[in-house]
Each structure stands twice: as C-alpha cells, then as structure tokens.
Amino acid sequence: MLEVRVQPRASRSAVEGLHGDRLRVRLQAPPVDGRANDALITLLATTFDVPRSRVRIERGASGRDKRVRILGTTSLPPPLATALSRTR
Predict the structure, then answer these.
(1) DSSP-based helix, strand, coil % in the chain, nearest 5
(2) What Rg value do the Cα atoms of the chain yield, rounded?
(3) In this structure, which of 6, 38, 49, 67 has its CB flanked by the most CB atoms within 10 Å?
(4) Does this model's pTM top 0.85?
(5) CB 3 within 8 A of CB 67
C-alpha cells in the first residue's frame, strides 16, 4: 500500500521522492476525465514492473492525495528506492 501525493500538469511524469509521509509523483496529464489517474497507474505499473491491472487506486480518485495498492510485489524497485533515498 502506498500513500501518494500527485501533482498533475507537471513538465514530466516521474516519482520525485517524499512529500511529508507520502510518495510525491508528478504527472504530465491534467486532472480531467481520469487522465491523471490513468497516468499514475501507468507510471506505477512501469516502475514496479507489473501489469496495469495490478495497480489500484483505493482512495482519493478525485483528489491529489491517494492510497494505491500494487498487487504482486514485495520490494521497492530501484528507481523508487533511488527517489526515496534522495529525499532523506
């Protein structure tokens, strides 16, 4: 389970580190018609190397703060570990 803070309409899509106790994610997609949520699912699926169907937004679909569940993974992928280590 990940607690995520999303920034839509960013210049690029990327995991940026931490925002308080949440994972900070920038998305190029605008927050219109679920496009930012789709972009978040795609980014996390690519980062964790799992199919999109294994990434679920459980809470916060219409806000910036979200709770995301990624099924079928037990460890942090290297890009995410690197992003988190830069913020500490």
Answers:
(1) 30, 30, 40
(2) 12
(3) 6
(4) yes
(5) yes
Spatial separation of the C-alpha atoms in residues 3 and 24, rounded to whole Å: 9
In words, the CATH class of domain 2-86 is alpha beta
Q: What is the pLDDT of residues 9-47, one digit of tens each?
A: 999 999 988 888 899 999 999 999 999 999 999 999 998
Let me know the angle formed at the C-alpha of 62 by 5 and 2, rounded to the nearest 5 degrees: 35
Domain ranges of the chain: 2-86
> Cα 82–44–12 angle (5° rounding)?
75
> Mapping DSSP to helix (H, G, I), strand (E, B) and coil, where does residue 65 land?
strand
Residues contacting residue 37 through CB under 8 Å, at least 6 positions apart:
57, 61
